[in-house]
């Protein structure tokens, strides 16, 4: 079980959609039960059913983490609503983004 969770943790680099489930499973490694093994198998089954849905990183010489943010507080004079957003890049590849009004 320890090796299976370790391999799933490694996969979270390119499959961030399994990060939450794998992090919860890793919390039970000190005393795993059969239900945790079944949950890990469900993650594997999900991965088998969604090939090609990971993050594709382009090759680059260096890996840097860059984050850009912007905000406009009450920029709309009529609605008085604020807008904000952020982008996160790893090695020039967009990995997360969010925009909120």
UniProtKB/TrEMBL annotation:
Stored PANTHER family: CYSTEINE-RICH RLK (RECEPTOR-LIKE PROTEIN KINASE) 8, GAG-POL-RELATED RETROTRANSPOSON
Name of the molecule in the record: Retrovirus-related Pol polyprotein from transposon RE1
Organism, as annotated: Spirodela intermedia (Intermediate duckweed)
